[in-house]
Specification:
about 180 residues, mainly beta, SH3 type barrels, 3 domains, six-stranded antiparallel beta sheet, five-stranded antiparallel beta sheet, 1 helix, 16 strands, about 0% helix, about 55% strand, flat
Length: about 180
C-alpha cells in the first residue's frame, strides 16, 4: 500500500481490478481544505488515460513490478519477442504496448522490460541507439548558412533528419526520446 501523497511518475497501481501506470502527478494544497494529489493514470491494458484526484492520505494498492534487462529478438506482427540473456527465458509483449516507439527496436537491442505476474506491462528504451542508414536523400548544394538537414531511412524503417554529410551505409546515433539525430555511430 502507498499513500497518494507519495505517488510519483512510473508507479504502478491496482484500481478497480485494473492496472494503471502513473504518468503525471501534481500536489494541490488549497488555502482551506485538505491537500490532494491530482494524477494522470494510463490503463496498462487499454492504453487510455484518465485523470483522478486522491486525498493525500488515501491508501492505494501499488503493485510490485519486476524489471528485467532483455534483448529484442523479433516481431511477428502482433507480438514482440524478447529474451533474458542470462537465463535465456523468453517474454512476449503486445506490439500495442510500444505503440510508435516500436520503430526504435532492432534485433539485439537491450531494453528494460517490466513484468507483473509473467506479463510485460511496461518498458524503458535506452536513451540512444545506433542504426545503419539504408537510404538517404541526395545532398543539394545551396544556402548553407543555417543548419541544413536532409531525410534518411535507417535499418528499422523510420526516417530521421540528418546533416548533409550522412550517406547510405553510415552508422548514426538516434535519441529515442524524440527521434533526433545526435551524431555518428
Amino acid at each position: 500500500m502507498i499513500e497518494a501523497g507519495d505517488l510519483t511518475t512510473g508507479v504502478t497501481l491496482k484500481l478497480d481490478n485494473s492496472l494503471f501506470k502513473v504518468m503525471k502527478t501534481a500536489y494541490n494544497k488549497p488555502g482551506r481544505g485538505k491537500a490532494s494529489m491530482e494524477t494522470t493514470l494510463m490503463d496498462i491494458k487499454t492504453g487510455r488515460t484518465v485523470n483522478r484526484i486522491f486525498g493525500v492520505e488515501e491508501r492505494l494498492d501499488n503493485i510490485y513490478v519486476e524489471a528485467e534487462m532483455v534483448d529484442y529478438l523479433y516481431s511477428d506482427g502482433v507480438m514482440l519477442h524478447f529474451m533474458n540473456p542470462q537465463s535465456y527465458e523468453q517474454h512476449e509483449a503486445a506490439a500495442d504496448l510500444f505503440g510508435d516507439e516500436a520503430k526504435y527496436l532492432k534485433e539485439g537491442i537491450q531494453i528494460e522490460l517490466r513484468i507483473h505476474e509473467g506479463i510485460a506491462i511496461d518498458y524503458k528504451l535506452p536513451t540512444t541507439v545506433t542504426y545503419k542508414v539504408t537510404d538517404a536523400d541526395v545532398a543539394v548544394a545551396g544556402d548553407t548558412t543555417g543548419k541544413v538537414m536532409k531525410k534518411c531511412t535507417v535499418e528499422t524503417g523510420f526516417t530521421v533528419a540528418v546533416p548533409l554529410f550522412v550517406k547510405i551505409g553510415d552508422m548514426i546515433v538516434v535519441d529515442t526520446r524524440d527521434g533526433s539525430y545526435t551524431g555518428r555511430g
